[in-house]
Amino acid sequence: MGAVLDDLARHWPLYAAMPFVAALIGYVTKRVAIEMMFRPLDFVGIKPVFGWQGVVPKHGGRMAAVATELLTANLLDLKEVFGRIDPVIITSELEQPLLRAVDHIAREVLAEHHPRLWEVMPTLAQELLIKQVQASAPRLVREFLDDVRENLDEVLDVQHMTVQRLTRDRALLVRLIRETSRPEMAFIARMGIYFGFGLGVVQTIVWAFTREPWVLPVFGGVIGLCTDWLAIKLIFVPREPVRVGRVIFQGKFQRRRAEVARQYGELIATEVLTVQNLLDAVLRGPRADRLAALVEQMVSSAVDSQVPMAFAGGTRLREMKHAAAAKALEQLPDTARYAEGYLTEAMDVAKVIEQRMLALTPLEFEGLLRPAFRQDEWKLIAVGGVIGFLVGELQVLLMLG
Q1: Which of 219, 314, 158 has the alpha carbon at shortest distance from 19?
Q2: CA dihedral of residues 161, 164, 168, 173 (deg, nearest 10)
Q3: CA distance readout (Å), 335 to 2, 65, 95, 276, 324
Q4: In this structure, are residues 384 and 25 in contact, taking their beta carbons and an 8 Å threshold?
Q5: Which of 200, 224, 288, 345 fits a 20 to 30 Å CA distance from 380?
Q6: What DSSP letter does each residue of 89-113 carry, written as one string?
Q7: Is the pLDDT at 115 greater than 80, yes or no?
């Protein structure tokens, strides 16, 4: 005992530093593990032997599928969202750009398919014909919205759109998970400090009595392993609040349900299910042909009711209808842009998702973030242990030196 006290007296700065070094090990291993979850976006190294790619971007397809399943199964009813759009208001918002689009399409189609007849028509007659076609535009918009609502599943594959968007843009997927879990990541790093310091105190005592070179690297490895594992567990469990005396324990992610729901809803609304993305999916997605058929059917009806018999007739009429429908689809993104503000406000995707998330069970809510940790979790913990072991070896060299 006297030898131990004498050694403590002579080397007290080193002994005093050991718990703090252990705390540093705990913190550094956590920060490394966190960054390894998200970085790099692309594989860096020599495939397949040596290298690394962030866990989230590496398994982006699977994680995107999990996120989409949660979104479509529990958080969002697109029919309900589209049902919030008022046909009267949207028609009012689109009135002027719609009239311009109809004017442009009608003149172009008539001039292309009936050039001689269109050219000999008096200007007044041309204008009257255009006005007649324009007059039916508001009714067509309302009918179009009704048709889209009734056939939403046939014209929009939201699962395909979301998975494709998140898979193609790995940075977006990383941001989606990282932004909603930022406090949890900071919590993991802090826990590394606290747990590391506590184990460092035990490490110091064991070293003082044994002076065995293996103590420091082994404790360093244990600190790295245990603090990684424990910190990740404390994010999610216990799922339900557990009261011990006056203290209530609950997984940090579960305690932040309201905040996470708001952040997640805003990110999905502004980055994934935007009006522009939804429109793009309708026009260019795997079910775009169904929308094209709807538009052609409506345009055909409008042409039959508005275009004079002088322009009608057989093959040429069919060509006119097809050309008008194609140009209408082509003009749709530019025309809809004028109503983007109203559509975003009316659909209010962020609020819908937030409310639905608050109604999830704890297990369903955990599924929002848990897949990001579960995949290759053992690798992250193992890296923490390796780093801790190496730092312990450096401590040995310092103490023995």
Answers
A1: 219
A2: 80
A3: 88, 32, 10, 12, 15
A4: no
A5: 200
A6: HHHHHHHHHHHHHHHHHHHHHHHHH
A7: no
Share of the chain above pLDDT 70, in %: 89
Alpha-carbon span 75 to 362, nearest angstrom: 14
* Nearest C-alpha neighbor of 20 from the set 192, 184, 187, 186: 192
End-to-end CA distance of the chain: 23
pLDDT band at 383 (very low <50, low <70, confident <90, very high): confident
Compute the distance between CA of residue 354 and CA of residue 351 in angstroms, rounded to an integer: 5
Q: Give the span between the Cα atoms of 291 and 283, in whole angstroms.
A: 7
The pLDDT of residue 69 is 78
Cα 343 to Cα 209, 229, 330, 376: the distances in Å are: 71, 45, 20, 41
Closest C-alpha among 172, 115, 144 to residue 291: 144
Q: Which residues contact 35 (CB under 8 A, 6 or more apart)?
A: none
CA count, 13 A, side-chain hemisphere, 31: 8
d(CA 364, CA 267): 19
Cβ atoms within 10 Å of 87's Cβ, excluding its own: 15
Q: Who wins on pLDDT, 272 or 128?
A: 272
Q: Which two tokens stand for residue 230?
A: 């424990």
Give the per-residue pLDDT at 23. 83
Determine the Cα–Cα distance for residues 388 and 386; give it in Å rounded to an integer.
5
Burial of 292 (0-12, 13-18, 19+ CB in 10 A): middle
Question: pTM here?
Answer: 0.72
Residue pair 163/65 in contact (Cβ under 8 Å)? The answer is yes
What are the tens digits of pLDDT across the range 230-274?
A: 777 777 778 888 887 787 788 888 888 888 888 888 888 888 888
Q: What is the pLDDT of residue 401?
A: 58
Quick one: pLDDT at residue 189? 82
- Provide the angle, in degrees to the nearest 10, between the axes of the packed helices 349-358 and 257-267: 150
The answer to whether the CB of 368 falls within 8 A of the CB of 264 is: yes
Whole-number Å distance between alpha carbons of 108 and 114: 10
User: Structure tokens of 30?
Assistant: 């956590």
